[in-house]
């Protein structure tokens, strides 16, 4: 049952609280490679410690999804593959060596999918909601990929579309959201993707020329950051959020992946936690200005800076400035990103109505 939360000790109404979808099971869920699973576990556990005493937060216990919910965006062959792999008595891989399966994993998958559906239900009462264990944006309709057995973000987008909502996606994970681009490339949904890119970095997608087709023509923006880009380049990339203002969505879906942090084990960018705070602040401001709901995800993160980056994003999503680290700069890479963003902004006005 969903209930409206009354004013608490801080005098906040339900709509002003930040919702965080949380289940203690999150501490022990990871679909990543065995070599970095412990890092994944630690990220979520440490994040929960950081936010435990934070004011203005409402914890939401997720409901379980069912198989029909997965079929909203995935083919039945993938669901059967996951069911079969979950019944095996050993750990293995669902793909070519990234995404693991383990005994009983199907229950965890349904909890992940259910977290998204629960967030959507509670968005009737809360303006902004965060799912720390979520943002599995690589899985396609038929295949697991890149630590992602399913695509929970796609479930959110498709569900919102089915309800007639106007949706903008902001995905800043260090890895391009190939699964989301493939599923929604032809659909009227604003997609702003900020990621590390050199043509070879996983998943080797994210061509700047891919701008969308059909009803989605002109609505797909791949802002590839040169490998090693710093906070200043990320700041330039976030100028793309001006397009969200012009698009006027009713919902903003954010994959706030923190694997671009300079200490991340998969090494791609040179960001600090400050960048994620800036992202959160900008999303907070847009949400208030446009009266748009926000569903956000923790995305990827595989290093000691992951938890503080997630916490920094949360502070921003509450409208609070939080700069825990010394910022980074690389003027040459910043100029590359600045030129790309300028090009996108100058050529986008025709497609945002």
UniProtKB/TrEMBL annotation:
Highest taxon in the source lineage: Archaea
Ranges of residues in domain Histone deacetylase: 43-305
Record GO biological process: epigenetic regulation of gene expression
Listed InterPro entries: HDACs, His_deacetylse_dom, His_deacetylse_dom_sf, Ureohydrolase_dom_sf
Gene3D superfamilies: Histone deacetylase domain
Coiled coil: none
GO molecular function, one term: histone deacetylase activity
Transmembrane annotation, as ranges: none
Protein name from the UniProt record: Deacetylase, histone deacetylase/acetoin utilization protein
Originating organism: Metallosphaera yellowstonensis MK1
Lineage, uppermost ranks: Archaea, Thermoproteota, Thermoprotei, Sulfolobales, Sulfolobaceae
């Amino acid at each position: 049952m969903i209930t409206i939360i009354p004013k608490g000790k801080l005098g906040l109404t339900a709509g002003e609280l930040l919702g965080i979808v949380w289940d203690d099971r999150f501490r022990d869920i990871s679909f990543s490679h065995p070599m970095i699973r412990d890092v994944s576990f630690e990220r979520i556990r440490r994040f929960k410690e950081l936010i435990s005493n934070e004011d203005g937060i409402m914890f939401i216990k997720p409901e379980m999804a069912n198989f029909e919910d997965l079929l909203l965006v995935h083919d039945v062959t993938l669901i059967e593959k996951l069911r079969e792999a979950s019944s095996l008595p050993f750990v293995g891989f669902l793909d070519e060596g990234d995404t693991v399966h383990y005994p009983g994993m199907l229950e965890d998958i349904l909890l992940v999918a259910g977290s998204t559906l629960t967030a959507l239900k509670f968005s009737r009462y809360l303006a902004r909601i965060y799912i720390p264990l979520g943002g599995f944006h690589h899985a396609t309709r038929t295949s697991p990929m890149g630590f992602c057995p399913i695509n929970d973000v796609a479930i959110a987008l498709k569900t919102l579309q089915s309800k007639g909502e106007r949706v903008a996606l902001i995905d800043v994970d260090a890895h391009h959201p190939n699964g989301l681009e493939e599923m929604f490339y032809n659909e009227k949904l604003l997609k702003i993707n900020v990621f590390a890119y050199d043509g070879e970095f996983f998943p080797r997608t994210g061509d700047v020329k891919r701008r969308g087709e059909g009803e989605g023509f002109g609505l797909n923006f791949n802002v590839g950051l040169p490998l090693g880009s710093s906070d200043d380049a990320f700041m330039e990339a976030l100028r793309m959020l001006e397009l969200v203002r012009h698009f006027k969505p009713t919902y903003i879906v954010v994959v706030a992946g923190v694997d671009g942090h300079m200490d991340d084990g998969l090494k791609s960018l040179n960001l600090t936690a400050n960048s994620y705070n800036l992202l959160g602040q900008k999303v907070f401001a847009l949400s208030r200005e446009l009266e748009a709901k926000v569903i956000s995800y923790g995305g990827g993160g595989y290093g000691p800076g992951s938890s503080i980056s997630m916490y920094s994003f949360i502070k921003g999503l509450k409208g609070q400035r939080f700069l825990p680290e010394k910022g980074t700069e690389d003027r040459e890479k910043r100029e590359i990103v600045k030129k790309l963003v300028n090009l996108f902004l100058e050529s986008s006005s025709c497609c945002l109505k």
